[in-house]
């Protein structure tokens, strides 16, 4: 088979078109920016039918031009992707072949957007997200990686080859190289081979599954810890606040990388310290749920007791199976009762990421509580005779949700960066693991000769974090409009 | 003000003590010491031999005592070993036990010996800090002015095209961790594959003399990640100031937009970024570790990684003391600076 070029035979027509439109677009933007400094201030004038009059003159012309050129640019890029899905592999080159692999992701994305936009007025804050362009772009990128991760990890759809299989002839080969005929597998290494002759594209896609599994869950745990400790610290103040804030500042003053090196090395893991930290940190969701439900239903014991028993029983079981690991210090559940085993490396990474994130969440929650506890509805609840935990969890927390949701998105991005950092230093995860950080670490040794093995996961990580940041920005904008 | 600084200093000292103790505790745990014994003496030591080797060198003492000795508030141990040699924390190899000092800890300026570099920790940390200082100086020179200009330009006209472009740009840089931007920079500007070999992909030669060619990429890599964050904070503070009453008054008076921005808004808008820049130091430290590893620039961050991955306990302790103090000190400066810059707090 022939090696694939980036855009294939279709590219002979579309590439020049793309180049010309892109050049024109850049030129038009420059001209428009220059002109805008000389243009008189815009005065809004309305047409007889009530619409606003468009801006006239040279500047108005260029504004329209920029808009149309931008649209043309998007159409051409979309053409590559759409043609790639429908034409046979090879006609649209690497881009098309990748687009074809991502077909299930495209379908899910289109479905999600169609449904969400159709029902957006009924979906609350999530629906409002679709009013903001930035938010939609961010959401699109994030969902792209989420779908990719789920289809790869659960349904084994998107990856072209096994992320660990090696084809010796393709060591460090550039993108688009065909796999030798003797191998009965997908025909190409779409993004080339790395220095162990593994497929870069499949590893990048598999890496997303690791991130999507760990990052949101770790962030959620960090939020549970931060909320459970931050609410009383802000609400009661006094000694409790001083002590907890001191502890939080202690962890925050610790250089993150030093902490990782101290926690994640095999010697420390063998002493069981991360497992004990896990026991401590993972109990917070239980405490949180217990207090949340109890403060709500404690006046109706007939309802409360069964709810608490069922919910906490289930959560406790999950908790016990999570912390009890074969081969570590903490191992007490018999195999039949143990629901699942988290690989010990992943557990350690998880614990350290939660540990690093929770003090920041604590500080945010504490600050919000300090602000909200002086509000009238809190005073009203106090006068009604509600307990302090009811006020914290059912009066203050719902009113602090806006900033917390925004920070949750940002923090998932930050957790992704931290996971990458751990991988970059080869800490925690096994060295052959396809997660993005480890892959960048693998690729950086030969970076100036073969940049592609490190570049693919680097750009993947960048796009995911960027998507999360844009999503957070869109959410903040929309939640401020309330 | 004096009382405030004193209280802050007290808390800072307490924090430093706690943090160094945590690091000391984690580095002096059993498995680490065992590994140390095996690398220092012999790999095929029996467990009993390891225990006596450690006991002879004072590692078997209680953790708090060891910490006190390391700190220099407790007298250093003097142990007559099972092999008949008298060893002490303060007794140098070519010194008689009687001549040695009683105390020798961090407070006395005795930071111990690095087991990897075979040199005194103090001198290693000193030279490496110097190299990192050079890097940081350039990072700050590039990062701070750019971030402030970008933030002010974006914030003075909220919602304008300039604002949107610059804000998106700063979001992108905050979403790019150092190991991503570094990799992209090397791939684009220093690899054979792209053909643009403008800069060096390694900064090792920059340790002796930094030039534009070998120092640009590491400096840019660190500066970029922090820049977006500072720029966004500056923008937020600038937009807040631009909606203030006195700016409206100035506008109604007929002051030109230029003068409003430069003379009325800027001074008040720059208080918040000052705190942010100071609080960026811990993150910069992170970036320094990643960037120095990526570009093979043997500064402070590189030393941290080397010490941690080679189980060099003394050096790791020295590095942690310095980094903890850098972080706490910048926090202190940011607190004091904030109070000092903000007249509303200063006067009350």
Structural account:
Chain A is mainly α. Chain A has two domains: about 1-100; about 205-480, MetI-like fold (Orthogonal Bundle). Chain A has 18 helices and two strands. Chain A has a two-stranded antiparallel sheet. In chain A, helix 11 (about 275-295) runs antiparallel to helix 12 and helix 17 runs antiparallel to helix 18 (about 450-480). With about 350 residues, chain B is mostly helical. Chain B has two domains: about 1-110, no CATH class; about 120-340, MetI-like fold (Orthogonal Bundle). Chain B is built from 15 helices and two strands. Chain B has helices spanning about 1-25, 30-40, 45-55, 65-70, 120-155, 160-175, 180-190, 210-240, 245-255, 255-270, 270-280, 280-295, 300-310, 315-340, 345; strands at about 80, 85-90. Chain B has a two-stranded antiparallel ribbon with strand order 1-2. In chain B, helix 7 crosses helix 12 and helix 13 (about 300-310) runs antiparallel to helix 14 (about 315-340). The longest helix of chain B has about 35 residues, at about 120-155. The radius of gyration of chain B is 26 Å and the shape is elongated. Classes of the chains: A mainly alpha (about 475), B mainly alpha (about 350). At the A-B interface, helix 8, helix 9, helix 10, helix 16 and helix 17 of A face helix 1, helix 2, helix 6, helix 7 and helix 12 of B.
